[in-house]
Amino acid sequence: MAHTVLIVDDEKNIVDILKFNLKKEGYDTTEAYDGEEALRRYGAECPALILLDVMLPHLDGFEVCRRIRRMDNLTPIIMLTAREEETDKVFGLELGADDYITKPFSIREVLARVKANMRRTAAVEAALPAPVDGLVIDDERFDAFVGGRPAELTPREFELLKFLAASPGKVFSREDLLRDVWQYDYFGDPRAVDVAIRRLREKIEEDSANPGYVMTKRGVGYYYEG
């Protein structure tokens, strides 16, 4: 299946040139001519890469980049601009842009940058952790993902989930968890474990009252359903 590139520029001739050459290379394209339309196209099309002009009507490219990065840290964004000031380039990169091309640009350069960023994204996606019973436990982000949604775990909740999931089916007492996760040697309050388990379930379970991942062995402790 062809990858879709979102082209965002208020100059139709530039959009047409990019669209023509990207299609020749086998990409699908979708186009936007202002910042607000760019956000709508992004939401509707889920592009594999975004070519984003800085100077746009309604919302400039910096603000578009900022808003997309609040939702999506993976899709490559290549900024297009007539500006040559280094501060503008740095600002775009700090907002989360992956690359920067200054107008006037060479089509060969644009295509090379598109291919390079596509390859990098494919490598990142391939390196993402494998699902654990419907969960993705991401050591890089210290979080878990449920159906692609970040669970927004605290560091303690993350360590607790990671510890339990490492030994599916094995039951750990509250004292075990205090020692191995909290690193308290039997003098911690076991109720801290119960509270952390409850909060963890609220974030990762579809129904925290009927959990499917973090289970209770009555009178003994907790285990991960592997």
What would you note in describing this structure?
This protein has 226 residues and is an alpha/beta fold. The protein is built from 8 helices and 10 strands. The protein starts with a strand and ends with a strand. 44% of the residues lie in helices and 19% in strands. Helix 6 (155-165) crosses helix 7.
Secondary structure tally, helices: 8
Overall pLDDT, averaged? 87
Q: What characteristic shape results from the CA principal axes?
A: elongated
The secondary-structure class comes to alpha/beta
Q: What is the H/E order?
A: EHEHEHEHEHEEEHHHEE
What's the number of extended β-strand segments? 10
Which range best describes the helical content: under 10%, 10-25%, 25-40%, 40-55%, 55-70% or over 70%?
A: 40-55%
**Main sheet record:** 5 strands, parallel
Radius of gyration: 23 Å
- As residue ranges, the low-confidence spans are none
Q: What percentage of the residues does DSSP assign to strands (E)? A: 15-25%
N-to-C terminal Cα separation, in Å?
34 Å
Spatial strand arrangement across the major sheet: 2-1-3-4-5
Oligomerization category of the chains in this entry: single chain
